[in-house]
Design brief:
This protein is mainly α and 84 residues long. Helices cover 67% and strands 0% of the residues. The site of fe (ii) ion has 4 residues, from helix 2.
C-alpha cells in the first residue's frame, strides 16, 4: 500500500507541477496542514493516507487551460471550468 501511495504522490506531483507550479505548491501546503490537523484530531489515521488524499485533492486542475492559472478576475465560463 505504501508503494502505491508513494507512486501516486510522485506522479500526481509531477502532473501538477507540469500543469502549473502553483498547483503543486498549493497541494503541498494543503497536505502539510492536513497532516498536522489529522495528527491532532484523529491520531489513529495513517498520516500517509491523509497526506496523499490532501495532496491530490486538486488533481483535476491539471485539465485547466494554461491561461486560467494566471487570471485575476474569472468569468462565469472560467468558474464553470473550475467547478466542472
Ligand atoms: Fe485546493
Amino acid at each position: 500500500m505504501q508503494d502505491i501511495l508513494t507512486r501516486a504522490l510522485a506522479e500526481g506531483g509531477r502532473l501538477m507541477y507540469g500543469a502549473h507550479p502553483s498547483v503543486f505548491f498549493h497541494a503541498r501546503r494543503v497536505a502539510f496542514m492536513a497532516r498536522e490537523i489529522a495528527a491532532r484530531v484523529c491520531p489513529d489515521v495513517r498520516p500517509a493516507h491523509v497526506v496523499t488524499g490532501a495532496f491530490l485533492h486538486d488533481i483535476g486542475k491539471i485539465t485547466w487551460p494554461a491561461e486560467l492559472y494566471e487570471k485575476v478576475s474569472l468569468t462565469a465560463g472560467d468558474w464553470e471550468i473550475k467547478d466542472g
